[in-house]
Amino acid sequence: MAPPPAVPEADHQDDDDGIPEGTGVDLRVAVRRLKARNTAPGPDGLPGKAWVLASEALGPRLAGLLSACLERGQFPLRWKTGKLVLIRKPGRSADSPSAYRFVVLLDEVGKLFERVIANRLAEHLAGTGPDLAEHQFGFRKRRSTVDAIMRVRALTTGDAVARGGGCFGGVSRHRQRLQLHALELH
């Protein structure tokens, strides 16, 4: 991890607008999520279970490292490097490229850091703002893909469809026809 570029002293912030404290707490929350998962290790060969077991002994040092990364605004390149694994789909010929799906395995420490960043961003947006849009489902606590699908179903079976208008991407069929007709005229 290279040192950050020099920052003029006038731009440096030592007040409450800097990086919030509590990386140790953030780390404990992220490690707790590792306990529930049984994933293959990334390029470093360390599975998530190893981080869970070592978190008590390494926690303060790892929290210090993550805090330094946050303060510098750096995400180590090594944590972004993955190991590509091809998994053969059942019932497909081994000669066919479409017979495989790929998975990129990343180091667990990078995933921990990503969770710390994501949690902090979500807390900041919810607390300080600007808050996320009501219809934002990704990157939100207690909102899932299922919630987004249910919202789309409600939109496509709601009043617009009952009136015969329907909708696609927020544009009524009538408006789509008008736009197509306008394009044909030009």
From TrEMBL:
Region (Disordered): 1-22
Domain of life: Eukaryota
Name of the protein this chain belongs to: Reverse transcriptase
